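Handout, section B. The chain below has 209 residues.
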Amino acid sequence: MRDTLQLLLQSANLAGYGASARFLGFFEKDSRYKPGREESAVDFFMRYFRNDLGYFVIASSVHANSDEVGHYGNAADDQRDGNLIKGLVGTGLIKEFGYKVRFGRDPSSQEYAESVEREWANIALMKVHGFPIESVRSLLIAKMVVYGLYGHCFIISREWNLAFYPHDDFGFGVIGLGDNANVQVAHDFLAQADQLPDMHSIIRTPPSN
């Protein structure tokens, strides 16, 4: 498991995933948001990898800032967010705490910025099969939509040396891990996603060594 984390940290540019050396592309919505778009994207991902998902690993530093969750201002969205966070905290997939209590009340201070950066970098590895599949689905949906949810979230296949990540344009990106990433699997996945209604894919070919 430690080797997996090292490979991820060597391969993924955490400051900008698209700048990773072996960034393989992404898919996203190509029109205005419609309710349920996030569920459709996540369900496609889970359906596509249904026979392999149990062997995947979650690499996550995702955490909820209780100062913000439930305070977006839309009653329906706030209730959805609260329910998602409660369930994820209950299963142990994420942590929840208040930024003001943990990091102080001055977001402009260097200490605050460094503390937040450390929290984002505190990536833990968890086996997908260690959690109910509905909870994993909820994590991926929450990462796309919940106001006040922060941190990195990758779903990793060591068989293919690929890291998939959910993003807030309602899709997934893919980063190749090391020199032995299975580029074809990533490209086939993105090509299939490009066929989804109101979605489009951008596919990248990594530089050859």
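Note. The first strand starts at residue 23 and ends at 29. Compare this with the example in section A.
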